Amino acid sequence: MDQVLVQPKSYPTNLLQKDWSKRKLTERCGQAFVDRVHDMEVRDDDVWIVTLPKCGTTWMQELLWLVMNDFDFEAARNEHLEVRTPFLEFDYVINNDLDLALAPVEALKSPRLIKSHMSLPLLPQQLWTKKPKLIYVYRNPKDYIVSQYYHVRSLGFCMNTTLAEFALEFIEEDRAVPSEDFEHVTEFYELRNEPWIYYTSFERMKLNLRQVIEDICKFLNKTISEAQMQQMLLHLSFEQMKKNPKLNHHWEFEQLRAKFKTEYEDNNFVRRGKAGGYKDELSADIIAKLDDMIQRNLDHCDLSLNELLLLDDKAVL
User: Which of 41-55, 79-93, 195-209 has the lowest mean pLDDT?
Assistant: First the structure.
């Protein structure tokens, strides 16, 4: 499904003051789905996780679900993550049934944990007014571009495209400044000090997962013992997540592969889990082109990449 231009019924003008008429918005699920999401009911005790694809979403989802469910590791090991915490857009991609598009989310008992890749103005209007807890995770674009490449090949797309070609296509698509991806992240970055939003990055999770867990517990008004912390650090380690079938999106992949019926490359969803892994996979020329694209967007937003990643200025990206 290709991305198509869409327009929400209204914009979050109570949160951000900007010229929304210039905001380019696309969504693979189309206008009717966008309208359905705009009008959906948001519960006061909802917890939302919003990211661009392949930015540490699964990692944070599992962390959040465990904190919200009293660190029930046994339950987590016995049910797929995407069943416990539905992906808002997924059901419509599979079934194309607008009436039932949000059924998995609506069927969840409160408090719900809901995942979405949709941008701020495409999320439910009630989210901007009720302001339930929302967690946003960002990642170095060079890493998430590489991760997206292997992800889409696992679904049977881009099978005749090299990683270099994929990255170059991404640069072409993002030639407009600011790009959609940078609009996506900077809108939430601007809201990072709101009490209902917790903004972090994949890189910060890699640097100090314990601190992020502590932050999330405080954010959600939960307590954690040292024994539970040790269990969390082990359960959420790359080694454990990589071999955990409930965290590698097998449930989703089976449905997507059945729908699209294409040859695919069998990459593990939790693949390398590195910060800066792009350096091993992209040529110096492609990295330079990506750096130029990223810098043009950062200059427009008057931000540095370290600021968006909440890293020290000395961090090497």
Answer: 79-93
Question: Are the C-beta atoms of 14 and 129 separated by less than 8 Å?
Answer: yes
- Please report how the helices 141-154 and 284-301 are oriented relative to each other, as an axis angle in degrees rounded to 10: 120
Q: Does the domain made of 4-14+23-140+178-247+261-272 have the CATH classification 3.40.190.10?
A: no
pLDDT of residue 257: 64
What per-residue confidence (pLDDT) applies to 316? 66
Q: Where are the domains of the chain?
A: 4-14+23-140+178-247+261-272
Average pLDDT, the chain: 90
Residue 170 has what pLDDT? 77
Q: Give the global pTM.
A: 0.93
pLDDT the model gives residue 135: 98
- In whole angstroms, give the CA distance from residue 247 to residue 19: 39
